[in-house]
Automatic annotation (TrEMBL):
Record InterPro entries: Cyt_P450, Cyt_P450_CS, Cyt_P450_E_grp-I, Cyt_P450_sf, Cytochrome_P450_monoxygenase
GO function term, MF aspect, one: iron ion binding
UniProt keywords, alphabetically: Heme, Iron, Metal-binding, Monooxygenase, Oxidoreductase
Sites where the protein binds heme: C384
Cofactor(s) required for function per UniProt: heme
Key word Oxidoreductase present: yes
Protein name as annotated: Cytochrome P450
UniProt entry tagged with the keyword Oxidoreductase: yes
Superkingdom of origin: Bacteria
Family designation: Belongs to the cytochrome P450 family.
Length: 437
């Protein structure tokens, strides 16, 4: 059976224009064309999976649907071959080495880092101030990720330079990956991107060298990664460590900042839920910054984060390449085909999530009918190692913010418009802050 192609493709650019102008409506429209739908980005053809059963098959069979092919070649040139981008042959070894650093026993220590950085942010705001939540949450979560990684050696200037280079990399990465021909042109944006990438790698390598020269033993994430060993007693090379830093900052920085940004946007658009979440923060925190031991009591805040991740999953397109001829449902997939699982499409399936466009934290009082339909952290052998870290960070930070401040949208019309890039985010989200304590 032939796979339908989404309408609206234009010569040379394919669906890139539609995806760039309104990525969410475009992705929502795909489901009506079948369980598999073809789209084009530039000259490349991709198959988008719109069915949770087939998506589960793609994400759990890493041997058949591997992270290979031209798309992942470009991703690895930008991000390196870390645990989130490595091919099947390297992924298992890297994951086994890294897993101990994310054991549940380390989370209270990481939560102390979250608490200090969150306090610095919320205590630096002023009553009546207008802030861009996209920028503020990015600074918060990258500060937390950097401090958790490099607590003993990172100077403030180092952190600021790393964060700046990282931001340029994230903003330009989507275009570099989706339109490789455009990325080769000597445009100012491309030159900024390449310069930021070089600066990023040089800084990370210098930090790793400093760690090794210090003799190890530091009580932070990088110290644990340096001490970790695989099944044969091998550790991670400097190049592999550098690649993991990029992955951890994207997972612990940009994706968590996206979850917080969308959660605040949704709360501002639903004042009754905002009022209830503020009341929960008052009852549980009493004006303090949230600690690890308060996490179980922040039930509504956790459901708000879950619903934000459903409505606006940060990793909205997950590509895989078929390594051999195979089938998905009733369709034959030739070897070399790039298949994309869209968390956004799965999370908005009306058969699984009634009124899928509605913001309803109460839907999480009971689990979804099909757990395969909700995958904000991926699924299968490549599911995010830092899921517990990121979830705890988002809940603790959001509760701490709401315990001190009430946000109000400056421009309600701009609150739900997503920008197409590596991580799903609005271009900006300006809110006015009112002090609560």
């Amino acid at each position: 059976m032939p796979i339908a192609t989404a309408p609206g493709s234009v010569p040379l650019l394919g669906h890139f224009v539609r995806l760039g102008r309104d990525p969410l409506n475009f992705m929502d429209s795909l489901r009506e064309h079948g369980e598999l739908v073809a789209i084009r980005l530039g000259p490349q053809r991709f198959i988008v999976v719109c069915d949770p059963r087939l998506a589960h098959q793609v994400l759990t069979d890493l041997r058949t649907f591997d992270r290979t092919g031209p798309v992942y070649d470009r991703i690895r040139r930008a991000m390196g071959a870390g645990v989130a981008t490595a091919v099947h042959a390297d992924h298992r070894r890297q994951r086994l080495i890294m897993q101990p650093a994310f054991q549940a026993g380390h989370l209270p220590g990481y939560a102390d880092v979250m608490r200090r950085q969150t306090a610095a942010m919320v205590e630096g705001w002023h009553d009546g101030e207008v802030v861009d939540v996209v920028e503020e949450m990015f600074r918060l979560t990258t500060s937390i990720a950097l401090q958790a990684l490099f607590s003993t050696t990172l100077e403030p200037d180092d952190a600021e330079q790393l964060r700046g280079a990282f931001e340029v990399f994230l903003r330009g990465g989507y275009r570099q990956i989706a339109l490789p021909l455009l990325a080769r042109l000597p445009l100012p944006a491309n030159r900024r991107y390449q310069a930021a990438l070089r600066r990023w790698r040089e800084q990370v390598q210098a930090l790793i060298t400093r760690y090794r020269n210090a003799g190890g033993g530091q009580d932070d994430l990088m110290g644990r990664l340096l001490a970790a060993r695989g099944e044969q007693g091998e550790g991670l090379s400097d190049e592999e460590l550098s690649d993991q830093v990029a992955v951890l900052l994207i997972a612990g920085g940009e994706t968590t900042s996206a979850a917080l940004t969308w959660a605040i946007s949704l709360l501002c658009r639903h004042p009754e839920v905002l009022e209830a979440a503020c009341a929960e923060a008052d009852r549980v925190l009493g004006g303090e910054i949230a600690r690890w031991d308060r996490l179980p009591e922040l039930d509504l805040t956790a459901r708000v984060i879950q619903e934000a991740l459903r409505l606006y999953p940060p990793s909205w397109l997950l590509p895989r390449t078929a390594t051999r001829k195979t089938t998905l449902g009733t369709h034959i997939i030739p070897a070399g085909t790039t298949v994309m699982v869209s968390e956004y499409v799965l999370h908005h399936d009306p058969a699984l999530f009634p009124e899928p466009a509605a913001f309803d934290p109460d839907r999480w009082r009971t689990p979804p009918m099909d757990r395969r339909s909700y995958i904000p952290f991926g699924a299968g052998p490549t599911k995010c190692l830092g899921e517990q870290f990121a979830s705890a960070e988002a809940v603790l930070a959001l509760a701490s913010i709401l315990g001190r401040w009430t946000p109000r949208l400056e421009d309600p019309d701009a609150a739900a418009k997503a920008d197409a890039r590596i991580v799903l985010l609005p271009r900006s989200l300006r809110v006015r802050l009112s002090a609560r304590v």
